[in-house]
Write a structure and sequence with these properties.
Layout: E1 10-11, H1 14-17, E2 21-25, E3 28-33, E4 36-37, E5 41-54, E6 60-67, E7 72-78, E8 82-83, E9 89-91, E10 105-115, E11 118-129, H2 132-149, H3 171-187, H4 194-201, H5 205-217, E12 221-225, E13 228-231
Parallel strand pairs: 1-5, 7-11
Antiparallel strand pairs: 2-3, 3-4, 5-6, 5-10, 6-7, 8-9, 10-11, 12-13
Helix pairs in contact: 3-4, 3-5, 4-5
Length: about 230
């Protein structure tokens, strides 16, 4: 079986997205920035506005405006219920924004889309963050990115706030374990539980739980139904 190629989400300042453009190749529409195809973006910011509505066709939708201090962009979702074999609704993109409140700090992974000449984000994951160290690190990275874009090389790299401890895995070990878990998904198209992934990858349940959380945050996988995981479709 050929392995599906996965593209990691790339972290951007919202302001930089507006330099890009939506291009079309035959039936495929994709977002391009600085000559590079960007399948998914990773953003963070504060929810400064929220709206729920219904289209003329009676389809529910929701929007949240995200502000990262460089600019703002809307997250938009439309109701698209996903049913299991018995006809029960197990997922709906509309529910992604339901728990969001104005003022929440969000980590967002999604695709850049365009409607009526305006960019918006079609999110695949939206996470409310309440970790102050995480927020500080995100803002430091934005500052460093701004400095790099202006070629302010006289200033040394800003150190991130230390949030790790001696019990955590090294980067190399972590990547090896992630590859093991991703291999389970790529060899098996059935929906996977934590226990099934642990059994197939020969890793402990606790390790698999940590890796699954990392893969969700990076936009590699999602939960199509409770307690089950699969690769995000390309």
């Amino acid at each position: 079986m050929s392995r599906r190629k996965r593209y990691p989400s790339v972290q951007f300042r919202i302001r930089d997205l507006y330099r890009g453009e939506i291009k079309q190749l035959r039936d495929l529409r994709y977002f391009e920035l600085d000559g590079e195809d960007v399948p998914r973006v990773n953003l963070f910011g504060v929810a400064v506005d929220k709206y729920d509505g219904v289209t003329q066709n009676n389809r529910k939708f929701a929007t949240v405006r995200l502000d990262d201090g460089t600019d703002t962009i809307q997250l938009k979702v439309w109701s698209r219920p996903i049913e299991d074999e018995e006809g029960n609704i197990v997922a709906d993109p509309y529910l992604l924004l339901k728990p969001i409140s104005i003022g929440d700090m969000l980590s967002v992974i999604g695709r850049v889309r365009e409607y009526n000449g305006e960019f918006f984000i079609d999110p695949t994951t939206v996470t409310v963050m309440d970790d102050i160290e995480w927020e500080i690190n995100q803002r430091i990275q934005l500052i460093q990115s701004t400095m790099d874009s202006k070629e302010l090389n006289a200033v040394e790299d800003i150190p991130l706030v230390p949030v790790s401890n001696s019990d955590e895995l090294t980067v190399s070990e972590d990547e090896d374990l992630k590859s093991k878990v991703m291999g389970v998904f790529e060899k098996d198209f059935e929906l996977n539980t934590i226990e099934a992934i642990a059994q197939r990858s020969t890793l402990s349940t606790e390790v698999v739980k940590e890796i699954i959380e990392d893969l969700k945050e990076s936009g590699e996988i999602y939960m199509p139904r409770p307690d089950r995981f699969d690769l995000i479709p390309l």
